[in-house]
Amino acid sequence: MFQLKTNQKIYKFSKLRIGGNPGELPTVLIGNIFYKGMPEVSNHKEGRFDKKKVLKWIKLAENLSEKSGVPHLLDVMAMYPRAITNYITFASEQTNSPFLIDGANSETRIAALDIIRQLGLEKIAILNGITPGTTQEELLAIRASQVNAAVLMAYNELDYSPDGRINILKGSKKEIGLLALAENVGLEKLLIDTVVFDVPSISYAAESIKLVKEKLGYPAGCSPANATYSWKEALKGEDLKKGFVAANVSAHTLTQCWGADFLIYGPIKQAGNMIPACAIVDSIIAYHAMKRFGTKPLEKNHPLHTIF
């Protein structure tokens, strides 16, 4: 629990705000839908799914979000171009909130950008995401789409340390950084994902969140679920498997104490566990910031006010 001296960027998406000093705004939680293995999806290539069942999960998350004061967004995932067109159309009809578009490959992400432009959703769509390996074709599609927000994946394959992630964002004389790359294609609202590789690396990702905010001032977060679900599959014995929910929540809330502005927590079915847990941690952080530094929550429905 800390206060940052660097000016912190706060981005607004419709009614949602993200960023700032710890205690000012609650952590934005982002749940995956249409991910590989989601039981409600019957055909991942064509994008066929049980609309009623998927909508049930979305409404559950939105209801918990409203009650707790923890913002909740969807991360619309797909492996094929045709599927992501169907998914985005559905998502845009079911929620008024911003949402992330997340294709498994360049072709699918380009198709997502195309349908976003057709539907006029440029101002609420957030591309997830841009990496050092993003192709020129995709960068041109981003510019053409007029989408102005994206997640930057601070992945440095030569240096996994927190400083290495800062370097991949800032770039060098030999290589353009992700921040400049994003700005060159018209992106204005940049969220930094400090990248989780495995469970132990969550510690580095958490430290990197604070470093990004200290040195650059951008909203930052990560996705511990990228590691925890792989770890779950490796667990041996029912006793350990039964403890997965608690372990998974702990891995996510840990990063809030390092200043996480957003968390991509994996399958939306975990919203019932993740939202209340993050709400109580947000409240603890906000109380400390208010008493220790005089920092007051910027939202009337901050968890500090809604659940206490």
Tell me what you see in this structure.
With about 300 residues, this protein is of the alpha/beta class. It has a single domain (about 10-305), classed as TIM Barrel (Alpha-Beta Barrel), CATH 3.20.20. The protein is built from 12 helices and 12 strands. The protein has helices at about 50-70, 80-95, 105-120, 135-145, 160-170, 180-185, 200-215, 225-235, 240, 245-255, 270-295, 305, and strands at about 10-15, 15-20, 30-35, 40-45, 50, 70-80, 100-105, 125-130, 150-155, 190-195, 220, 260-265. The strands form 3 sheets. It has an 8-stranded parallel β-barrel, surrounded by 7 helices. Strands 1-2 form a two-stranded antiparallel ribbon. A hairpin with a 2-residue loop joins strand 1 and strand 2. Helix 2 (about 80-95) packs parallel to helix 3 and helix 5 (about 160-170) crosses helix 7 (about 200-215). The longest helix has 23 residues, at about 270-295.
